[in-house]
Records
---
Amino acid sequence: MKAIRVTAFGGPDVLRVEEVPTPTPGPGEVLVHIHASGVNPVETYIRAGKYARLPELPYTPGNDGAGVVQQLGADVSELKSGDRVYTAGSISGTYAEFALCKKEQVHPLPANVSFAQGAVMGTPYATAYRGLFQRAVAEPGETVLVHGASGGVGTAAVQLARARGLRVFGTAGSNEGLKLVREQGAHEVFDHRVPEHFELIMKATGGHGVDVIVEMLANVNLGKDLPILAKGGRVIIIGSRAPVEINPRDTMQRDADVRGMILPNTPPTQMASIHAALVAGLENGTLRPVIGKEFPLDEAAQAHQAVMAPGAMGKIVLVADKN
Ligand code: NAP
C-alpha cells in the first residue's frame, strides 16, 4: 500500500510517500481502507520532533481517518467488511491507503456523512466535546466563548455548544472565518485580530461575563480571558504554543477555574461516551463537519504547511482515494 513515512524528524518535506506492506489485523484489530485522513496541528509538532510523546522512527502519522472496513481480526464481531467507519486513533497511522486500528478506535460513519467529514471526528470533534462537556462542564443556558472558532476544533465546538442550548460567541482572524463561524451557529462573532475584542465580548454579555472559554491559543489570550469570566467561570485550555503571564487575582475574584486537557488522557469509558454522542449528532444532522481544504495523500507536506497557516476555514484533510 501507499503510506506516508517519516524517517527523520524535521520540516514538512520529511513526509514522503512509500510503498509498504499492508498490515494484517490480529485479535481485537480492524484494517480500514482509508478514503480520507484528518490533518491536525499536533501531527506537525510530532513530525518536527517537538512534542512530549514521540513515536519511534520510521512512522506513519495520523490518528483520524474515514473509509470502509477491509478486514477484521478473527474475534471481531461488532463490524463487518464493507462497513463505513471513521477512526479515532490508529496503530499503524492514517496517512496511508490502509490503517490498522484497535476495534475501540473504529466508529460507524452514517451514510449522510462524507469520508472527508468522517476524518474530522477523531481529534477535533472529540476534543471539542471533551473540552466543553466533560472538562468545562458547560451547561445549557450558559455563555461560551470559542476563542479560535474558525478551525477544526473551533467549528466543532460552535456546533456542539449551539446544539446543547448554550449562548455561543466565536472568534476568527479573517472576514471569511467570521462568516464561517456565524454559519456554524455562533450567536455573535468577534475578530481576534482586534485587541479590543475582549471588551466587546464583555459588553455583549451585559457585564455578566462569559461562563466558559474554550481557548485555542492560551499563550496569547489567557491573561485577558480571566477578567472577562463570569463568577464560577471556567477556561478550558485546548491549545497553547508558549508560556503566558496571568494575574492569579483574576481567578480569585470570580472563583474561576483554569482547566487543561489533552485528548489522550480521556479514560476509555468517557471516550466511548464521546463517540456515542458524536455518532448520534452525525446521524441526526446536528453535526456538519466543515472541510476547508483537501489534498491528495502525496501532498501531505503542503497539508502540514496549510494547517499551521492563519486564516483557518474548517478542517484540512488528505484524500487517499475518491469518495
Ligand atoms: P486549526 O484548525 O489550525 O485552527 C486554529 C484556530 O486558532 C483558528 O480558528 C485560528 O483562527 C485560531 N487562532 C489564531 N490566532 C488566534 C488568537 N489570537 N486567538 C484565538 N484563536 C486564534 O487548529 P485546531 O485543530 O482547531 O486546533 C487548535 C489548537 O488546539 C491547536 O493548537 C492544536 O494543537 C490544539 N489541539 C489540542 C488538543 C488537545 O487534546 N488539547 C486537541 C486538538 C487540538 P484564524 O485562523 O481565523 O485566525
Note: The two ends are 18 Å apart (CA to CA).
---
Amino acid sequence: MAFWSSTSVFTSKVPRKILFMFTLSLSVTYLFYSLMSCYNSFQFQENYVYQGRLVTEETTFVTLREKLYSTSSQVYLDEEFVESTATEQTIAVSSVRNSVGIDERTAGWVRAQAATTRSAAAAAAGEPLEFSTTDSELRRAVNCTSDYGVKKLPQAIIIGVKKGGTRALLEALRVHPDVRAVGNEPHFFDRNYEKGLDWYRELMPSTLEGQITMEKTPSYFVTNSAPKRIHSMARDIKLIIVVRNPVTRAISDYTQTLSKRPEIPTFEVLAFKNRTLGLIDASWSALRIGIYALHLESWMQYFPLSQMHFVSGERLIVDPAGEMAKVQDFLGLKRIVTDKHFYFNKTKGFPCLKKPEDSSTPRCLGKSKGRTHPKIDPDVIRRLHKFYKPFNMMFYQMTGQNFQWELEEDGNSPGFRD
Ligand code: A3P
C-alpha cells in the first residue's frame, strides 16, 4: 500500500516528458546490450568453429601419433574390428604384449633385424656387402669414381624410403653429368655417426665445381636422430624422399627379407598380432616404415618443406622421365636426364637405363629390384589399406601432394603391382 502510494506520488511529481525520456533510454540501453550479447555469441560461435577446426586437425595428428606410439610397443586395432567386436578387443588390448612378453615369433624377428643391421654396418665399414637396399650388380667401390676435384659433404641426400625405388632414382640421377653420388649406402647418420664427418666425406666421390655430391641411405627417413644430425651438418641440404603405397612397400620389404630368410613366418602372420581379433602389428618394421606422416613430422621440425622433394615410387616406374624432370628442377640441375635415357624392358617389366653412368651399354637394375611378390590374402591387404588411410591422408596434407594410394585398393592405379 505504502509502495503504491509512493509510486503514485513519484508519478504525479515527475513531468511526463522526463518519464518518457527515462523509459526510452532504458529501452535503448537494453537493446544495445542485447545486440552486443548477440554479436558476442556470434563471434564466439565463429571462433569456436574456427578453433574447432584447428583443434580437430591437431587432434587428428596427436591421435594418430598416439595411436602409433601405443602400437609401437603394443598393437594397432583395426578400426573395422572395433565396430564389430569392441568388447573382445578391449580384452585383447589389455592382454597384448607386455614389456617382457615379446613372443618367440617377434623375438626371432628382432634377431633377424639385428642381423641385417650388423651386415649393413659391416658393409659401411668396408667389409663385403650383404645388405638390403644395395644392388650388388650395381654397386661401385667409392675409389672407382673419378679422382678429379675434391671430396665434399653431400648437398643432397635421398633419405628414404626403403623399397620406395631409391636405387632406381639414384642410378638415374647418376647419369646426369652434374651429379656425383656414392654407390653404396653410407649409413652415416644412423649407424656410423661416431666415425665423424671426415670419415663421411672420405666416402664421397670427388666433384668438380658445379657438381652436386649425393648419397642415398633410405633408413635415415625412419631414424629419429637423423634430422637433427643432418641439420647440424648442412641446414640448407636438399632432401629427397621416394614414397610408395605403404601396403605395397611393406610387401616388398617382406619379400626382400623372405629372399634371405625363407624360414620367416608368412606376411599375414607377421602383419597381425592377432588376426582373428583384427590386431595389426604396427611395431613390425615392415609396417611401421610406411607411416610416413609420423616420420615426416620429425623432419619438419628441422627442415622446411621447400628443402624436401617427394618422388612417387609408382610414377617413377610408369613415367621415370617425368619424375626425373621434377627431381632435376628441385636440385637446380638442367633437365638432362629425359625420356631418351630410358627404355622399357619387357623381360624385366621395368624401365631401364640406355646408358648408365659407368657404361655405354643399356642396363636394368639387378635381380633384387623388381622382384615378384608373394600372393597376400586380399583381406589382409584391405585391412592394411584401411589402417594406413588416415596416415596417408595426413601425409598428403603435410606434403600438399596426393599420391592417390587409396585408388590402389581397387588395383586401378598406375604402378600397382602385388
Ligand atoms: P620391388 O622389388 O618390390 O618391386 P629400393 O631401391 O628403394 O629398395 O626400391 C626397390 C623397388 O624399386 C622395387 O621394389 C621396384 O618396384 C622399384 N623400382 C622402381 N623403378 C625400378 C626400376 N627401374 N627397376 C627395378 N625396380 C624399380
Note: The first helix runs from residue 2 to 13.
---
Amino acid sequence: MTGRVFPGDSEEAGSPPATLVLRNAHLATMVPGGDAYGTVRDGALLLQDGRIAWVGPERDLPPAEPDADVLDLHGRWVTPGLVDCHTHLVFGGDRSGEFELRLQGATYEEIARAGGGILSTVRATRAAREDDLLASGRARLELLARRGVTTVEIKSGYGLDVDTELRMLRVARALGGQTGVRVQTTLLGAHALPPEYEGDRAGYVRLVCDEMIPAAVQAGLADAVDAFCEEIAFTPEECGRVFDAATAHGLPVRLHADQRTDQGGAALAARHGARSADHLEHAGEAGVRAMAAAGTIAVLLPGAAHFLRDDTVPPVAAFRTHGVPLAVATDLNPGSSPLLDPVLTLSLACLLFRLTPEEALSGMTRVAAQALGLEAEIGTLEPGKLADLAVWDVDHPAELAYWMGGATCAAVVRGGGVLTVRE
Ligand code: NIG
Ligand code: FE
C-alpha cells in the first residue's frame, strides 16, 4: 500500500485532516436494501470534519478541494468500524485456574456456587488500583482496536459495591479518552450477589436501585443498565426491580437473558422495552415473539458458548422468522469469554450459531449500533454518519468470517483520522 501514515499510531500524533478522500476501494456499506453487504465496487468515500460526506462509485466522486488528503486503498475492502456492543473488559486478575478446573470436569455453576466465578473476579477487582485497571483494560481494548473496533460497550459488574462499580465505569470512560475508541458504559450492579449481602438478596437489590443507579447517573458514568437473570444470579422479579429503577432515571436497559437456563429472560427484557437481550441460548419461542413485538435486539455471544463448551444454539431461525435483528459481540470477560478478537468472533458466530457471514458482519456493525442506540451515528457507511471505518486485506467481505481470526485489518479510521496503515 502506498498510502501515507497520518496522524500515526496514536491519537495524540495529530488531528484528522479536514478532508480525506479514500479511493480505489470496494465498500461493504452494510446499508440494507441493496445486496447482502450493501456493496459498492470500485468505490470511494469523502470524509469531511470527521463525518462521511459522500459514498459511491469512484467514477461519480465529486471533485475535492485541491489540498484534500487522498488515500489510495489499492482495491481493499472498507467496512464500517466494528462495534463490539457487549464486553466486560475492565477487571482485575484472570480466571485461568478455573479454566483448568472446568477442563477437569467442574461446571461454571459449581465454581460459582463455591464462591469462585464472578465473585473471584470481584475480589481481584476490588483489590486492584484504578491505574492497574486502566492499564490492563487499555491493553485489551487496544487489541480490539487493532482488529477494526471503533466503538465498544464496557460493563461494570465486578465491583458490586457503589465505590468499585463507579471506579469501573470511570476507568471505562477514561479508556475512551486514552485510546480514541468510542466507549459506551453500562452499569451491571446486578451481576452477582456480593458475599456481604449473603442472606439479604432484597437488601442488595435495594442498594443497586436506590444507591448505585442514582450515583452512576449523578456522576454521568452510565449510558445503560444491565442485569444477569439466571439461577446463579438474579430472578426475573429482582431484575425487573432493577429495570424499573433504571427506567425511572431515564437509562435504557439490557439483559443477560436465558444463557444457561430458560428464565423467561427474553420476555422480561421485552416487557421492559430493553434495547437488547443478550446470550439467549435457552430462549423459547414466546420470548422471541415478545422481543420482536418490543423491538428488542438479540445480541449473540458465541465466545461464551464456545468457552463454556455449551453446544446449545440460540433460536436463530425463530429470530429470523419473527424479524428480531441479530447483533454479535465478543462478551470479552475473564470467566466465560476471554475472547480478544472481534474477527474470530464473526467466524464463531457462523460456525457455532450458523449465521451467514453477512449476518455476522451486520451483527457487529449496523445491528450492534442499534443495540447501543447509536444507529444515527455509526454502523453503516452513509453520508452524515461519523467517519469510523475499517480497511481489510481481503478479496471479499465473507473472508472476514471465513479466515478464523486471520483477516488482516490494514487501517482503522475514527472520526476521519487514519490510525494505522500498513504499507
Ligand atoms: O456475559 N453471564 C454473565 N456474565 C458474564 C460472565 C461473567 C463472568 O463469568 O465473569 C457473561 O458471560
Ligand atoms: Fe456478558
Note: The first strand starts at residue 19 and ends at 28.
---
Amino acid sequence: MQKLQLTTEYTLYDTISELDNQAQELLKIAINAREQAYAPYSNFSVGAAILLDNDEIVIGNNQENAAYPSGMCAERVAVYSAGSKFPKTTILKLAISASSSHKEITQPVAPCGSCRQAISEYEVNQKTPIEIYFMGASGKIIKVDSLKSLLPLSFDKSFL
Ligand code: THU
C-alpha cells in the first residue's frame, strides 16, 4: 500500500491590472458576457471568454431554464460554441467572471466539476494546455496554466 499526494499550482493576482494586456482584454470580455447572462433563477451570472489560436474570441454566459437542470453554465456554453464554430482550432485561454445580485463576489469563482470535465475534453484533444483565468465580480484573480491543475486524475477517452 502506498499513500500518495497530488499537488496543484496556481498564480494569484491582486488586480486585473497585474495581468498581461491580452489576458486583461479577455477577462474584460468575460465580464461583458457575464452582464448578458440569463440567470433569472439563481441571480448568479457567469461570463466566459475564449481566445483561439486563429485570434477569434468566443464568449459564453450561463443560460438558465425554468426546468432547472436544463440550464447550462457559461464555460460550457463557451467551449461548445467554440467547438461548433471552429472545430479544428486550438483553445489558448479561457477567462471567467462571476457575480451575484445577492452579494458582492470578491473571491475567484472556479469552474464547476462538469465544466472542468467539458474543458478537459478539448485540452486532451488539442494536446496543448489551456490557460484559465477566473475571478468573482471584483478582487483577486486566479490563473492556472492548464485545466489539469483543476482536475487531477481526470477521466478521458484513453480509458475507453
Ligand atoms: N454556473 C456557471 O455558469 N458556471 C460554473 O462553473 C458554476 C455555476 C452557473 C450555473 C447556474 O446558472 C448558476 O451559475 C448558479 O449555479
Note: DSSP finds three helices and six strands in the chain.
